[in-house]
Design brief:
Elements (H helix, E strand, L loop, with lengths): L2 H5 L3 E10 L5 H8 L2 E2 L8 H6 L6 E8 L15 E8 L7 H8 L4 E7 L6 H13 L3 E6 L9 H16 L9 E3 L18 H11 L12 E10 L3 E10 L1 E3 L3 E4 L4 E4 L2 E4 L2 E3 L1 E3 L3 E6 L10 E4 L5 E9 L1 E2 L12 E6 L2 E11 L32 E4 L17 E13 L4 E5 L12 E11 L4 H4 L6 E16 L2 E5 L15 E4 L4 E8 L4 E5 L6 H14 L22 E9 L7 E2 L2
Parallel strand pairs: 1-4, 1-5, 5-6, 6-7, 22-26
Antiparallel strand pairs: 2-3, 3-4, 8-9, 8-17, 9-16, 10-15, 11-12, 13-14, 13-16, 18-23, 18-25, 19-25, 20-21, 20-24, 21-22, 21-23, 24-25, 26-27, 26-31, 27-30, 28-29, 28-31, 29-30, 31-32
Protein name: Selenocysteine-specific elongation factor
Keywords: Cytoplasm, GTP-binding, Hydrolase, Methylation, Nucleotide-binding, Nucleus, Phosphoprotein, Protein biosynthesis
Cofactor: Mn(2+); Mg(2+)
């Protein structure tokens, strides 16, 4: 395989994600557009054939002359043709993870909408995923052959207006909308009928193309979607390079299986090449590897991926998700190319003294850079029972900065700083509800299986605690006995030395227990005020008669109420502190 074979013609690869609601005609559209079908393409999956639904990321491609606006090379080496790789993403939501898996390398999204039905639940979910991952979009109104010819133009214009209205508040505002019939007569019709509007769509795609940001540097990460053996050659893994590059004779790792293999040959759409880089769709041949072990997964530079048992991510709720995001709840977490259940714990910045600049976020937002929050083990964070909505800086209405700890049910292998999406995939597919709940970026991963003991204690998330009790009696000017602050079985030693405040204004320190029933002694350093002592003399007279709810009102009582004198104890406790220490600032 010589270098000259490689350089005879230079093709720019451009990945177009074909997304849409189930049965909107995505696969027929990809088929109508395509000339070369790669191995994974067109519903090869037997389960998919039975259901007539794309079950895995199908890939196919077609090549066109390089459009004029790309001819000057954009500072890149000159290309002479443009290859559109169509990534046909599943439309039914049990496979949201497959879409997110493919979305990382999609340069342009083609949202296919059934012109008769309009936007459906999954269309909206596809839109959201597009917003999180993709800079540009084209809307294709498919199945125009189903509209009566005399009303067709009118119906198309109406639906185009509707689509523009739907997209108004998204990053795809004013994106082009085009009408086609990818498979006139439906999937069962003979192939004799020509698709309608497809040449115009190809022209539109050419117009929308640009030089994607491709970086051959850094570690290799390739998403493999098919694996099969060729007799006498070895095992071919086909997939898309998400980052880095590869070349013949490179050693790569299959992290899920903890094995490394040497690359024997590389193909791009059936043409041998010596190497490939980020964004390219390739077949890589290795030897002595059983294809059954890896139907899909990732291949990477040896040692570059991490296997995590838990992670901290920045988090932003997805506006269309109707449920609450509660700490200790479980969500499906899609990270890298895996989806796994995880328990979530939300935390944020302490309420006052936060000198952070306001974060610039809009809903539901492409993943904003501000989501890569500066997370640090040196900072203190406050525990949250749930995700906090809309009390951002200066009451701007944006959500405040917050993070979530994810504790995975099984370890996941992923690159650092990757996109993370949390969803409720167990919600009914047919329910008209968005199942994507939150998004974020992986900021800190825990690779130790015993992370709860070794790493989490470094995570300084605290809960504010308060306890209320009453003064039972005074023993001298500097000492009072309190009750009802602790249960009988509480280990009072843990609280010795903590400061308390009396409702009359004095501050004191807990000195220790008193008797066996949870009562305790408080030392009041400054001494009790005369008016407080007066209260207690009144109160204890009443007590003698068995009254326990405070004494009669006295002229010297500050607020004129007959409540006993309260004891307030405030402290914070770090959620992951193994010693459960109480801390007072």
């Amino acid at each position: 395989m010589s270098e000259s074979a490689d350089s005879r013609s230079k093709t720019l690869n451009f990945n177009v994600g074909v997304l849409g609601h189930v049965d909107s005609g995505k696969t027929s559209l990809a088929r109508a557009l395509s000339s070369t079908a790669s191995t994974a393409a067109f519903d090869k999956n037997p389960q998919s054939r039975e259901r007539g639904i794309t079950l895995d990321l199908g890939f196919s491609s077609f090549t066109v002359d390089l459009p004029d606006h790309l001819r000057n090379g954009g500072g890149q080496q000159p290309y002479d043709s443009l290859q559109f790789t169509l990534v046909d993403c599943p439309g039914h939501a049990s496979l949201i993870r497959t879409i997110i898996g493919g979305a990382q390398i999609i340069d342009l999204m083609m949202l296919v909408v059934d012109v008769v039905k309009g936007v459906q639940t999954q269309t909206a979910e596809c839109l959201l995923i597009g917003e999180l991952t993709c800079p540009r979009m084209v809307v294709v109104l498919n199945k125009i052959d189903l509209l009566p010819p005399n009303k067709r133009q009118n119906a198309i214009e109406k639906m185009t207006k509707k689509m523009h209205k739907t997209l108004e508040s998204t990053r795809f505002k004013e994106c082009p909308v085009i009408a086609v019939a990818a498979k006139p007569g439906g999937p069962e019709a003979p192939d004799t009928e020509e698709p309608q509007g497809v040449p115009e769509l190809i022209q539109l795609l050419k117009k929308q193309s640009y030089f994607p940001q491709r970086d051959p540097g850094g570690d290799l990460l390739m998403a493999v979607d098919h694996c099969f053996s060729i007799r006498g050659q070895g095992t071919v893994m086909t997939g898309t390079i998400l980052q880095g590059s590869l070349a013949i004779n490179d050693t790569v790792e299959i992290p899920a299986l903890k094995v490394t293999k040497k690359i024997k040959s590389v193909q791009m759409f059936r043409k041998p090449v010596s190497g490939a880089m980020q964004g390219d769709r390739v077949g890589v041949c290795v030897t002595q590897f059983d294809p059954k072990l890896l139907e899909r997964g990732v291949v990477c530079t040896p040692g570059s991926l991490r296997t995590l048992y838990a992670a901290v991510i920045s988090v932003r709720k997805i506006g269309y998700f109707k449920g609450s995001l509660a700490t200790r709840a479980k969500f499906h977490i899609t990270v890298g190319h895996e989806t796994v259940m995880a328990r979530v714990s939300f935390f944020g910045l302490p309420p006052v003294g936060s000198s952070e600049p306001p974060s610039d976020t809009k809903s539901p937002a492409p993943l904003p850079r501000s989501l890569d929050k500066p997370f640090s083990f040196d900072r203190e964070y406050v525990y949250q029972d749930e995700y906090v909505v809309g009390l951002g800086e200066a009451n701007s209405g944006s959500d405040p900065e917050q993070w979530v700890l994810l504790e995975f049910e099984r370890p996941v292998t992923c690159p650092s700083l990757c996109l993370v999406i949390g969803s409720k995939l167990d919600t009914d597919i047919h329910a008209n509800a968005c199942r994507l709940a939150f998004q974020g970026r992986l900021l800190q991963g825990f690779e130790d299986k015993n992370y709860a003991e070794t790493a989490l204690p470094r995570l300084r998330i605290y809960k504010n605690k308060q306890k209320e009790g009453q003064v039972e009696r005074v023993t001298d000017d500097y000492t009072v006995i309190g009750r009802n602050l602790f249960k009988k079985e509480t280990n009072l030693q843990l609280f010795v030395g903590l400061n308390v405040m009396l409702s009359t204004g004095e501050s004191g320190v807990i000195e220790g227990g008193f008797g066996q029933s949870g009562k305790f002694k408080i030392r009041v350093q400054e001494g009790l005020r005369p008016e407080t002592k007066q209260l207690f003399t009144c109160t204890s007279k009443k007590k003698g008669k068995g009254g326990s709810k405070g004494g009669p009102a006295s002229d010297e009582e500050p607020k004129g109420d007959s409540q006993p004198v309260g004891i307030h104890l405030h402290f914070k406790r770090y959620v992951f502190d193994p010693h459960k220490k109480m801390v007072q600032s």
